[in-house]
Design a protein that fits this description.
Aspartate Aminotransferase, domain 2; binds pyridoxal-5'-phosphate; 2 domains; 7-stranded mixed sheet; 404 residues; Aspartate Aminotransferase, domain 1
């Protein structure tokens, strides 16, 4: 008799980003090259300062760090946050507002756990980063979508947020710049959404892991929720080195909040897991000295890719892709009624000169039944010539799908 599992374990949602991996593995086993545009794994080299941070480690013992992270790293991070326009938002950020975590992922888990009891709900802007649902599910917390629409450039309406609030709602969680949409919240939008959070006593959790990836002229970073006045008790920033420094394997993130009670609760969770990775924190600290030119080059490269991708996609009959202002994702409408079946077809029944392409079906980024069925999320984490090639494969795949 097999041991029984928890309902929570049995019903945990599979990641729509990775779910089709077995089809990609099978394609590779047949000798087909798969262009992976399904996952946000940046391909740019990690900055030298970060790598050297590992090389320079000389300690005889790989010790735990403090549960909240190394003091020296948190102090350096405070300096970084205070270079954003956070002064307008209230008192300066100090090291005690920052809890270092094992990736932004753990910061999300701790924040939702500290804000919500089982049976509570978080609101998310839909389409949403799917792991919000994964973490909420682990904690017995419901995810309630606030819809946004491709034809409105995925703008988040404060009125729709207000309409979605119930007495069970504890937090509003969204990324800016967005995954999967690439949408970037303007300062005024943060103010309007923040007001709803204040009116309804919600934590306003803004996942800013793509902060530097903005393609708006004259801006180096997306507006931060830390810069909005009046949100000291409500605002929580989720952050990570994964995307900023092309360092997903480093597993270093943090949460930042001026709310002392929320911080104290997350610290207790952090103490239970003892420590974030020590050497990775030292390397992430060293990475703070990365020259601005590195970031500017990285952003220019992603911007070029976005432009190539958007133009190539919109040149295909029946495909529509908006031109997102940030991150390195977009959601595109395809002329198919079941994008997941089409993605499987691309991997298992189609190839162009020995190559095919993998996208993430967008339906898994929606909680509203049926929403996003004709959409895919595309991560532009390959060089421009590979993106052009991938879009040619898509165009040929769409023709083959129509004729099958
Ligand atoms: C919006 C968003 N938040 C958080 C994360 C978590 O990243 P990590 O745990 O690598 O810091 C990701 C990763 O893709 C993301 O896209």
């Amino acid at each position: 008799m097999p041991l029984s599992l928890s309902r929570r374990g049995l019903t945990a949602p599979a990641s729509p980003i990775r779910r089709l991996m077995p089809y990609a593995d099978a394609a590779r086993a047949r000798g087909v090259h798969v262009h992976h545009l399904n996952i946000g794994q940046p391909d740019l080299p990690t900055p030298e300062a970060f790598i050297n941070g590992y090389r320079d480690y000389a300690g005889p013992v790989l010790a735990y760090s403090p549960s909240q992270g190394l003091a020296s790293y948190r102090e350096a991070l405070a300096v970084y946050y205070n270079t954003l326009d956070t002064a307008a938002g209230g008192r300066a950020i100090d090291a005690d507002d920052i809890l270092v975590t094992t990736g932004g992922s753990e910061a999300l888990l701790f924040t939702i756990a500290a804000a919500c009891d089982p049976g509570d709900a978080i609101l998310v802007a839909e389409p949403y980063y799917t792991n919000y649902r994964g973490f909420a599910h682990m904690l017995g917390v419901d995810v309630v979508p606030v819809p946004t629409f491709l034809k409105e450039d995925f703008a988040v309406s404060a009125q729709r947020l207000r309409d979605a609030c119930t007495p069970r709602t504890r937090a509003f969680v969204l990324p800016s710049p967005g995954n999967p949409t690439g949408a970037v919240l303007a300062y005024d939008e943060l103010v309007a959404l923040g007001q709803v959070c204040v009116d309804h006593d919600l934590f306003f959790v803004v996942d800013e892991v793509y902060r530097e990836f903005v393609y708006l002229d004259g801006r180096h970073t997306a507006a931060s929720v830390l810069s909005v006045p009046g949100l000291d008790s409500h605002a929580v920033v989720i952050d990570s080195v994964s995307k900023r420094y092309s360092a997903c394997g480093a597993r270093v993130g943090c949460l930042v909040t001026r709310n002392r009670e929320l911080y104290a609760a997350t610290l207790k969770f952090a103490q239970a897991r003892l420590s974030p990775p020590t050497v990775d924190q030292l390397a992430a600290h060293a990475a703070l000295s990365t020259p601005r030119a590195w970031m500017e080059e990285a952003v220019a490269e992603y911007r070029k890719r976005r432009d190539v991708l958007v133009a190539a996609l919109n040149a295909i009959d029946g495909v529509f892709a908006p031109c997102p202002a940030g991150a390195f994702y977009l959601v595109a409408d395809l002329p198919v009624d079941d994008a997941e079946a089409f993605c499987v077809f691309l991997l298992s029944e189609f190839e162009l000169d020995g190559e095919t392409v993998m996208f993430a079906p967008a339906e898994g980024f929606y909680a509203t039944p049926g929403a996003g069925r004709n959409q895919v999320r595309i991560a532009y984490v390959l060089a421009a010539d590979k993106l052009r090639r991938a879009v040619r494969i898509l165009a040929a795949g769409l023709a083959a799908w129509r004729d099958r």
